[in-house]
Amino acid sequence: MAKTTPTAAKNLLTTYDYINPKPDAELVRKSIVYKLIFILGIDPKDATPADWLNAAMFAARDLSTENFLSTRQIHEKFKKRTVYYLSMEFLMGRAFTNSLINQDLYGAFEQAFKELGLNLADISEQEADPALGNGGLGRLAACFLDSLATLRVPAVGYGIRYQYGMFKQEIVDGKQIEKPDLWLDNGMAWQFARPAKRFPVSFGGTLDTSHYPPRWKPAEQINAVAYDEIVPAFGGQIANPLRLWTAHTGDLFNLASFNEGDYFSSMEAQMKNETIANVLYPNDATAVGRELRLKQEYFLVSASVQDIIARHLCRYDSIHTLPEDVAIHLNDTHPVLAIPELMRILIDDYYLPFDQAWAMCQKIFSYTNHTLMSEALEKWSVDMMAQLLPRHLDIIYKINHHFIENVVRPQGYDDDFIRRVSIIEEGEQRQVRMAWLAVIASHKVNGVAKIHSDLMVSSLFADFAALFPERFTNVTNGVTPRRWIAVANPKLARFLDKHLGGSGWLTDLNQLNQLNKLVDNKDIQNEFANVKHAAKVRLAEYIQREMNITINPNALFDVQIKRIHAYKRQSMNVLHIVHRYNQILNNPNADWQPRVFILAGKAASSYNEAKQTIRLINDIAYFINHDERVRDLIKVVFIPNYSVSLAELIIPAADLSEQISLAGKEASGTSNMKFALNGALTIGTLDGANVEILQHVGAENIFIFGNTVEQVQTLYRNGYNPYDFIDNDPELAQVVNQIAQGAFSPDEPHRYHKLMHNRDEFQRYADFRSYVNAQAQVDKLYRQPEKWYRAALVNMANMGYFSSDRSIEDYCREIWRIEPVSEQELPRLA
Ligand code: T68
């Protein structure tokens, strides 16, 4: 295409003539109305709020498109080495408000809507929240894209455009019901369809090994078609792409059944393949091993690797320069098939010798591990892979052979060691260990918090750390202050602007440090308390409106929002709530600190224990909220359908952040950072990034409790017995018995028997007493507002380190070796 473009047209974009300088409210209003009429074909007098939103999103998209296209030009002109971030999940959250804030257009749009007799905030609420991810891992990817753009790092995100994202959660009679999430139903104005960007992805068939390289004759083929989402930098001229692939029935007639003239069965097979990108697997932290999931993973990486190579060949005429031009990052093991896919293309299509292709791969790939839990480690059966991806399996065997013979054996390791590090796990059913493949192929492997990276090296990857000690590193996670303060908590943003002398903190979060000087100032404490109170009122109104539950904004808001999982111990939170309830009934006239317990989160649809936990929370909420003896001293609220946009509403309103996973199990956590950044105090274990938050805020400003990793391991080693703890703590025993015997489920007394009397894999009972004691400290501090708000300010002041900008700088320096676009490389504005 490019070759046929006339020279005059080629130069059009470099001049920046169209949109810049920045539009005022009048221009914005005209643009919105224009989009409504001429793009959407809707008469303004008939337009619904959703129509206005779509029109406004088109108008806003226009304003970042020039940056988006010129960024691409800069990258090409200066041949910028680029990082490609491959992830099965991107939890971007709503795009509209974020794009207005990042481009400093919020005021103009607000005014424009005012002139139209509409309210920008209400219109923004119309936007669907694209939930193309499960939880922390997907949201981390979204924070990273924001930071990559803002830091002007040449980067492309690659993911899947699931037609159905994370399911919509409804609560019916206390139970989770899953409904499809129709995020595309109102259109998706923010994405560009790229019908011309398509790559064939093949599956199945046979491998003819009588040639070298062997010939893969696939049985099925489908096209991956791109949609590009603009990721605008904050305040800058840069915008990077997030490229999401959909599956389309191809016009590829080289398949067996077409050749045999069996049109309908061929079409049927193709239609089945179109379902590849239909739905996100809602399994957080559990491997599923389903064929469709393997197909999805291959679909993502095959399209992405082909695209990366095509982009490279636009700039360079040789495939050999790929490692200088390209870094590919694997977000967990889900995209690990990119390794054998790149090998396949280099060997089969470019005729590179195995060793040369392998050396290139080892320069190109890096991998982040997000969990040490064995049930979450991806393994694919050799049989399934042989069926679906015979050439890739063949390459994996060759990689394994090369690794064992050239790396392991020469160092004198024994057969037992070799069995442990082999990519192929032997057993009744042979399995491909994806994490092993990732480690062997990558030049860097990182964990997501210090404690996690240390454990990774001493446990999961200990054998590999002996082989390649320099390969392992840590990059502690971070969160973007643009979304988690500017978008989520505008009042806090104004507060910070005022006391930090401008909005520089938004791109240099260490400036929050200056707050340290102000934490004893009573006026500032009060001002912050007012910001917090306003956020609590806003959340209380939502809860009143949506759930018809009245909560008191003056109570302490105690919040645990995250996926429901046994290791995160929502049920330990429940033990404390019931214990507190008992104490209040025993001693109704004591001076109790009123609390609202707020929980939210989804349970994987096949995870029974997590679903029972949701039901327990709701049963207890119903029971306690209706017990008049408790008055307003405890309220329990389970907010349905947790999402990024709900997090934006809840986090600013939290006083207390519950980060209570069993030590050693939560790789990092990222909501812990968002809460502290919004001035909540943490009650938490020495797990994940809590450990580093403690180091940054100081022990007086955080409530740490529970066993350490070492203590947890000792308990396991000695044969952990939950009754050692239940039988020695009468108050705990009372709580366990109440729940197990139906005090909160009188219609079905045994409903929670199993949940309470299981083997307590995550040692809730061992940590219970220490947790309850820490909760008493929380009450005590909250009753001294000066001390509480001082501590809250100290937390905020010391969160600079937890900006995703810092994480991305670490990745660029230590892992990807990527330079951002410099000031000089930016085009000069007309
Ligand atoms: C999370 N992992 C970690 N996994 O649990 C959390 N898994 O500690 C960490 O802060 C975060 O990653 C970012 O590093 C996940 O969220 C998943 O969502 C997931 C999805 C599919 C399969 C397995």
Low-confidence blocks of residues = none
Shape: globular
Question: What would you report as the Rg, rounded to the nearest angstrom?
Answer: 27 Å
The percent of residues in helical segments reads: 40-55%
Structural class: alpha/beta
Bound molecules: ligand T68
CATH class of the largest domain: Alpha Beta
Reported by name, the CATH topology of the largest domain is: Rossmann fold
Strand order of the largest sheet: 5-8-9-2-1-10-11-15-16
Tell me what you see in this structure.
One of its GO terms (biological process) is glycogen catabolic process. It comes from Alysiella filiformis DSM 16848. Keywords: Allosteric enzyme, Carbohydrate metabolism, Glycogen metabolism, Glycosyltransferase, Pyridoxal phosphate, Transferase. GO terms for molecular function: glycogen phosphorylase activity; pyridoxal phosphate binding. With 830 residues, the protein is of the alpha/beta class. The protein contains 34 helices and 22 strands. The chain has a 9-stranded mixed beta sheet. The relative contact order is 0.10. The structure holds ligand T68. Ligand T68 binds at residues 134-137, 140, 283-285, 370-371, 376, 448, 477, 666-670, 688. Ligand T68 binds next to helix 7.
